[in-house]
Structures are given as structure tokens and as C-alpha cells.
């Protein structure tokens, strides 16, 4: 299937309950698969606000947590499933990782704007770091061809690469693949053939390195930015970022942003 320009797929009004089909383990990550017969098929790069239907809260009174924002990992064309990639890094994500087949997952989405097709017949280069690999998997599904470069902390996280058809790997500790940063792989890739368009998602330092590499070489890049989102539809202004055209809310004007639009360097404080 050839890539087309991404339009905003509108979410149905309000959150809806879906049924968990399976929770698959890939090293340090959990892939939650759920059935969503009442929702539209999302575009690559869009996201959902997720929460468990039961026991979604903490403390003695189970005070509710805010929903968590997750890029869709995969939305198979032949069924109504949605897949999400989750790492247990706190109470909310721990509860999501506990969910098993038959339990309910409440979703709101798809939200935001996703990736657009490579311009000027450029080849697609996908660069992901950690749990930020998620939107790149569905994008690879929709592209005819793409080069995939992934970076992980260590061997415990590297099984995330199993979610791709093929990928070159880098790990911080050298336990799998290249010993170093995924941006080392990107620099070598662009030095070999600069006629590319880069798609990236990951922690802010990685995205800033991708932005700088592409800016130096005048290579277009689309970055799926991460930011704390409390609502997902622009009401709370919790995910505002600065661009050359002023401020925008990632949840409605992103999360995918053309790197050339960013007004300042991406800093660790911009992510979550």
C-alpha cells in the first residue's frame, strides 16, 4: 500500500469501552491488543487517551488517575483491533500492563494529526527510541518501503524491535547491535544517501539530535513529539510547544510536527 497524505481522522464523541484481547510481552514492553468495533481506523502518528475501566486510581480511596496518552502501535486493516505499546514506569502504566484478555480498556480517540507521505519521492527513514517506536510500526505498515533505525537502553528493551519487519538496532550499553546512539546510525544512513525524509519519535534528547542532524543536511523531518497531556483535545493547554508561527497544542495541532517549524531546540523538559 502506498503512503498518502495523512488527514485527521475524527474521533467519535466521548470515551468508549473496548475489550482487551491479549497482553503480549516483548522484553520490557507490553503490547495491549483490544477490539474497537465502534471506532474509525486511525492514521499513523495519531494517539489515544487510555485508562483501565476498573481500579483506575491510587491510594486508599482509589482517587482516579488521569488517562494516559499513547500513540497507536498498530491497527490491522483486516480487523477492528488496536494495539498499544506500554512500558511499566509508574502506577498508571503498571495498571495498564496488568490488564488481561476479557478486561475493559477505556479509549478516547483517535486524536491529533499523524504523519504525511515523503515529499519529492524521498525515501522514508524511520528513527525510534524506546517506547517512542510505537507510531513508527503502524507507519511502516502503511509505507511501501522504509528504512528503520531503533535505539534502546539495553537488551531487556531491544525485543521491541520484534514489532518491525526489519530494523537496525543500537543500544546504550552495546548489548545488542551498535554500541551507542540511534542517531549514530542515522548520521551514517544520511551520509550514504541524503535523499530522504526522516520520521522520528522518542525521548526529547534523541529528537533534538535528529532535528539538528536533518537541519545541518537540509533534510526534511517529521517529529512525533511527546508531552504531558491531561485531556487530549486542547482544553487544558498542558502540551503547548513553541513554533516559528507561535504556540500550538500538540494534542490538536500535532503530535507530528515538521521539524522546520520548531522555534527552539527540543529540551528534556518538553517531554514526559
User: Given the structure, what is the number of helices?
Assistant: 5
Sheet with most strands: strand arrangement: 12-11-10-9-13-14-17
At the fold tier of CATH, the topology name of the largest domain is Rossmann fold
Shape: globular
Helical residue percent band: 10-25%
Structural category is alpha/beta
Share of residues in strands:
25-35%
At the first level of CATH, the class of the largest domain is: Alpha Beta
SSE string, helices as H and strands as E: EEEEEEEHEEHEEEHEHEEEHE
Largest sheet descriptor: 7 strands, mixed
CATH architecture of the largest domain: 3-Layer(aba) Sandwich
What does this structure look like?
- With 272 residues, the protein is α/β, with parallel strands linked by helices.
- The chain folds into two domains: 16-111, Translation factors (Elongation Factor Tu (Ef-tu), domain 3, Beta Barrel); 119-270, Rossmann fold.
- The protein has five helices and 17 strands.
- Helix 3 (182-192) runs parallel beside helix 4 (204-217).
- It is globular, with a radius of gyration of 18 Å.
Amino acid at each position: 500500500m502506498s503512503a498518502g497524505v495523512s488527514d485527521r481522522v475524527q474521533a467519535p464523541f466521548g470515551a468508549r469501552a473496548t475489550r482487551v484481547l491479549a497482553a503480549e510481552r516483548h522484553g520490557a514492553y507490553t503490547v495491549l491488543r483490544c477490539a474497537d468495533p465502534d471506532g474509525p481506523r486511525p492514521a499513523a502518528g495519531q494517539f489515544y487517551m487510555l485508562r483501565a475501566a476498573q481500579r483506575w486510581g491510587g491510594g486508599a480511596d482509589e482517587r482516579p488517575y488521569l488517562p494516559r496518552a499513547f500513540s497507536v502501535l498498530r491497527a490491522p486493516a483486516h480487523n477492528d483491533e488496536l494495539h498499544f505499546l506500554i512500558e511499566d514506569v509508574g502506577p498508571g502504566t503498571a495498571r495498564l500492563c496488568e490488564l488481561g484478555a476479557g478486561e475493559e480498556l477505556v479509549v478516547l480517540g483517535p486524536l491529533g494529526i499523524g504523519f504525511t507521505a515523503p515529499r519529492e519521492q524521498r525515501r522514508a527513514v524511520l528513527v525510534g527510541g524506546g517506547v517512542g517506536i510505537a507510531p513508527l510500526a503502524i507507519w511502516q505498515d502503511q509505507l511501501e518501503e522504509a528504512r528503520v533505525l531503533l535505539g534502546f537502553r539495553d537488551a531487556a528493551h531491544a525485543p521491541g524491535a520484534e514489532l518491525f519487519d526489519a530494523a537496525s538496532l543500537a543500544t546504550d550499553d552495546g548489548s545488542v547491535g551498535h554500541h551507542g546512539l540511534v542517531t549514530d546510525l542515522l548520521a551514517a544512513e544520511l551520509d550514504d544517501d541524503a535523499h530522504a525524509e526522516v520520521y522520528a519519535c522518542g525521548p526529547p534528547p534523541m529528537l533534538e539530535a535528529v532535528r539538528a542532524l536533518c537541519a545541518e543536511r537540509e533534510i526534511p523531518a517529521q517529529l512525533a513529539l511527546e508531552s504531558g497531556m491531561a485531556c487530549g483535545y486542547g482544553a487544558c493547554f498542558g502540551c503547548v510547544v513553541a513554533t516559528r508561527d507561535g504556540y500550538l497544542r500538540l494534542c490538536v495541532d500535532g503530535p507530528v510536527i515538521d521539524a522546520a517549524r520548531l522555534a527552539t531546540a527540543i529540551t528534556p523538559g518538553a517531554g514526559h
